[in-house]
Specification:
Elements (H helix, E strand, L loop, with lengths): L2 E9 L37 E8 L4 E5 L6 H11 L20 H16 L3 H4 L7 E3 L2 E3 L4 H13 L4 E5 L6 H12 L4 E5 L7 H14 L2 E5 L7 H10 L4 E6 L10 H8 L5 E5 L2 H14 L3 E3 L6 H12 L12 H4 L16 E3 L12 H6 L6 E2 L1
Parallel strand pairs: 5-6, 6-7, 7-8, 8-9, 9-10, 10-11
Antiparallel strand pairs: 1-2, 1-13, 2-3, 4-12
Helix pairs in contact: 4-5, 5-6, 9-10
Length: 378
């Protein structure tokens, strides 16, 4: 078996109207540099993704989805490097590709391919599933308090019991959480993710006690810059709200690295983790979390259906992935590009696909509708 063709199709799938922020809030949430624009200057749903189809000379096909805003030249070169290689001889935990943001999409396609070749779901290639459904949260970006409460109430009616939202120093998270509690009830929990934009512990402390008093904040994710893990520990010691560290392998340019997990454990700086990146890397980090007996959840970039399916397989095969994962793309995007959407159960969970490979298929009409340029065939 040899790979003899790789097809790369660029797509842009916008968000549904009003799905990210309240009307009037213009804050962009893509953290990374895009061309000549700095981080936090482009909204994530404006950025191109690539649908990657890998075919072999005996007719096997695997399909994957790249992260957003990857480099066209690099993804083309990586595709060319796979031509002539036998996927059966690859170690799926360490593919013959250099690691960059482009890697994840090829890994996604190759797990789909090899699962289909062997006739097993992708989670079998990761060791097997611990669960047949994965706990998920709802999500929005930044909202005014009354709107935040209304959205939370809507999510609760859909079966979710928690949501995650973005926060910066421009908003008052205490008022937002109060309104969420008022409209969604005492048992609806909140995860606040400032992406490090609360800057310093001294700026967190004035409202940390108020958040504790409201009582619905489950945890704070990356409240201050990630390099300040001693500050994370300080917040743990001074407050009652658990602290989580997000370790995202695709954010290497932001100096995020797997070793941060070890440092956080050594410093006793966090209560939980959020991991995202390649399927095999999430499992490797999940193994560390298991040894440390520390729960985590699977992060995302508000993706489409193929990547989200890969996240479900990773989450299902990691013992400590028991917190609500960031699998909510279909709440936000106009389409997931799948023939049959991922199956949410109405109780805040999504079923693990049981078909071979990723267990999902691309909808050709949707792929054509959201195609954002010429398809590249290698």
């Amino acid at each position: 078996m040899k790979i003899d063709r790789v097809t790369l199709t660029p797509v842009v799938v916008p968000a549904k109207s009003g799905a990210i922020h309240s009307d009037g809030i213009q804050t962009a949430l893509h953290m990374l540099v895009v061309g000549g624009k700095s981080g936090w200057s482009v909204e994530f749903d404006e950025l191109t993704k690539w649908i990657i189809e890998i075919r072999t000379d005996d007719g096997a096909v695997g399909v994957g989805e790249s992260l957003r805003s990857v480099q066209t030249e690099r993804i083309h070169e990586m595709a060319m490097s796979l031509i002539g290689k036998d996927p059966q001889k690859m170690n799926l935990r360490d593919l013959p590709l250099p690691y960059s943001r482009e890697y994840d999409g090829f890994e996604c396609a190759l797990y789909d391919l090899m699962g289909k070749v062997l006739g097993v779901p992708a989670y079998r290639l990761l060791g097997g599933a611990y669960r047949d459904k994965v706990y998920c949260s709802a999500w929005f970006g930044q909202r005014y308090p009354e709107d935040a409460g209304a959205q939370a109430a809507r999510f609760k009616e859909m079966g979710y019991d928690c949501l995650k939202f973005k926060g910066s120093l421009k908003e008052n998270p205490v008022e937002i959480c109060r309104e969420i509690k008022k409209q969604a009830g005492d048992d609806f929990r909140v995860i606040i993710d400032p992406n490090g934009r609360w800057e310093r512990p001294a700026e967190v402390m004035p409202f940390l006690r108020d958040l504790e008093e409201v009582g619905n904040v489950w945890l704070l994710e990356d409240p201050i810059p990630r390099w300040n893990l001693r500050g994370f520990r300080f917040l743990r010691e001074k407050g009652d709200i658990p602290i989580a560290l997000h370790t995202a392998i695709p954010y290497m340019e932001l100096f995020q690295k797997p070793q941060d997990v070890l440092t956080a454990l050594e410093l006793d700086a966090v209560d939980y983790f959020n991991f995202n990146g390649p399927m095999a890397w999430v499992q490797k980090l999940g193994d560390i979390a298991e040894v440390a007996n520390m729960p985590f959840w699977h992060g995302s970039e508000v993706d489409l259906g193929l990547l989200e399916a890969s996240y479900i397989h990773s989450a299902a095969s990691s013992k400590m992935c028991t917190l609500p994962s960031d699998i909510f793309g279909r709440l936000i995007r106009e389409h997931d590009l799948l023939k049959t959407p991922l199956e949410f159960t109405g109780d805040g969970h999504v079923k693990v696909p049981q078909g071979a490979g990723l267990g999902v298929e691309v909808e050709p009409d949707a792929l054509e509708k959201y195609r954002a340029g010429e398809t590249i065939v290698v």
